[in-house]
Amino acid sequence: MSSKKSSKLDLLVRVRYSNPLPAPPCPPKLLKIKTEPLRYARPEFLNGLANETPLPMIVDAECGMPLDLGKWECLWEDNGDDLSLNPDPHNLPKLDPRDAALLFDPSSSTGVYATNGSSRAGSSSHASTPLANVTWLRKTEYISREGVQRSAMSEQKHVVSAPVDVSRNAQLRDIEASFAACNENFSLETLQHPNKPNVTAVESFPFLPDADIWANQYDLFRFSERPGDRPIEVDDPRLDCAILRPMKTEHDSFLAFYLTQDDESALSFKETRFGQAPYEVPENEEETTFHFVRDYETVKVEQEVPNEFLLVLSDGDPPITIEDLDLEQKQTRRDKGAYYKNIERKMHLKKKRVNIYDQYDDKWEIIRVLHAPLSAEEETEREEALAEVADPNYLNTREDADADGEVDDIAEENDISGMRPNAAIDIVSES
């Protein structure tokens, strides 16, 4: 014998159209909430209805208020007295008491009323009256939050801000004082890591700009996967000397990626680069051939990278006799310090799909690279960039240059960075 029970929800109502109800004009019943009858006699009571009611008005060119300019003779005479239009602010005419109500500021009246019927724009005697605390109508977290907000509003903090001296002498004085505080009272034992209390400092380095590479521009490239054709666990020395060349089609801009054919060519190229002094051209150099690998498109480009740097920790050059050094060697010697250089841009790259219909302006399949001396223009540009850290009067001269209307030159986009000192290239185009 089986029994079947069926139930029907008779009170199920499906809401198809939202019909929000307006706030009640009077307090709900069974709640003791003080209601001020005077608020019904104020014009602010009808502000909500007035704002929601469209008023079709057709007015003339003078907006229903004709103005007869013939009553002011100062508008038409040469030496007329304009006190009737522009009264003296220190000797204003007496205001009619009937016009005093026109000086009322409408912005001070919000016209917003709470749902319990109490006016927020009421008289000053009732404005400071707190709302009734009806706990059974609110959740506990709302009650605690409201108490915190009320306590924060009740506390009035009086902060007396002293005038700050921003003159040049005051800035120089404060900078010198900061150096004294860091050098005289500095101790490694007092340093604490912000997140790791067990980590202690063992050595300190002066933080200085790297004058050796300051004239160069460095970009940070991040690939979605490892470039080249080798797996990630296999070492690839060719990646240290790769070439990224800007490319452009009719509707797109991307980067062409070039690598050497074998590891021996890359190692020989790097040995030639780092075996010479900076900006010195090797003699009888053999050209290095770079082959096209694939194209990469830029997913994201960050033009300003304020918190990433190239950092080199140096213990300083070994001590030698000062008499054995000439002036140039004294200037190029390094002291102990942490030398930094800022990163200009940061780019995220991913592989670009091959499209046979793309029309390249100048596609190169092979690039042959040789080092070449800097030209006069490049020498001038390098000296201007290096003056930022080498010239003590750089800021003063730059202010003078900006005042004269000089504009810094923008570097060419087609320069191939990462080669030291400079590179002469031969191109073999696609056949």
UniProtKB/TrEMBL annotation:
<dbReference type="InterPro" id="IPR007133">
    <property type="entry name" value="RNA_pol_II-assoc_Paf1"/>
</dbReference>
<comment type="similarity">
    <text>Belongs to the PAF1 family.</text>
</comment>
<keyword id="KW-0539">Nucleus</keyword>
<dbReference type="GO" id="GO:0006368">
    <property type="term" value="P:transcription elongation by RNA polymerase II"/>
</dbReference>
<feature type="region of interest" description="Disordered">
    <location>
        <begin position="412"/>
        <end position="431"/>
    </location>
</feature>
<dbReference type="GO" id="GO:0000993">
    <property type="term" value="F:RNA polymerase II complex binding"/>
</dbReference>
<feature type="region of interest" description="Disordered">
    <location>
        <begin position="377"/>
        <end position="407"/>
    </location>
</feature>
<dbReference type="Pfam" id="PF03985">
    <property type="entry name" value="Paf1"/>
</dbReference>
<protein>
    <recommendedName>
        <fullName>RNA polymerase II-associated protein</fullName>
    </recommendedName>
</protein>
<dbReference type="GO" id="GO:0003682">
    <property type="term" value="F:chromatin binding"/>
</dbReference>
<dbReference type="GO" id="GO:0016593">
    <property type="term" value="C:Cdc73/Paf1 complex"/>
</dbReference>
